[in-house]
Amino acid sequence: MRQVAVFHEAEEAQIARSFLRSHGIDAQLPDEQALSVMPDFGLGGYRLIVPREEFFSAQALLREVEEKPSPYAACGRCGKAALRRSRGRTFPAILAALFGALAPLASARGGLRCEACGHRQDADDKEIPA
């Protein structure tokens, strides 16, 4: 088996695995169970692996999908194609659930974040306050 991609979101990894399987490639996510229980375990993300003889086919299929334009590809502020999905802050939310007095600290921010300029926006290009 050979690693063909790494994903930081379980959903993206599962979609990629299903996509490759639909093309007859035996794709697997060996760390899926461990990361679903302990997402911050430090394994480096969800590794997508395929048999060695199918590596180049899998790589070509994934590259083909990546090259298609995405409606979320460009930042609303700087215009660069550096948007990545971001999650809200989990730790403050957990603290707020355990200790109700900390609720104001638990801002649930998710959406998209530009790695170039730090701008946050939701999927509809509306700015998310910092």
Walk me through this protein's architecture.
- This protein has about 130 residues and is of the alpha+beta class.
- It has two domains: about 1-65, Alpha-Beta Plaits; about 70-130, no CATH class.
- Helix content is about 30%, strand content about 15%.
- It contains four helices and five strands, in the order E-H-H-E-H-E-H-E-E.
- The protein has helices at about 10-20, 30-35, 55-65, 90-100, and strands at about 1-5, 45-50, 85, 110-115, 120.
Count of distinct structural domains: 2
What is the architecture of the largest domain at the second tier of CATH?
2-Layer Sandwich
Please summarize the sheet with the most strands.
Answer: 3 strands, antiparallel
Q: What's the SSE pattern?
A: EHHEHEHEE
Strand content: 15-25%
- Strand order of the biggest β-sheet: 3-4-5
Sum up the overall morphology in one term: globular
Uncertain stretches of 5 or more adjacent residues? 89-96, 99-109
- The rounded distance between the terminal residues' Cα atoms is 42 Å
Kindly provide the name of the CATH class of the largest domain. Alpha Beta
Q: Number of DSSP strands?
A: 5
Arithmetic mean pLDDT: 74
What is the count of helical runs?
Answer: 4
The third-level CATH topology of the largest domain is Alpha-Beta Plaits
Structure class: alpha+beta
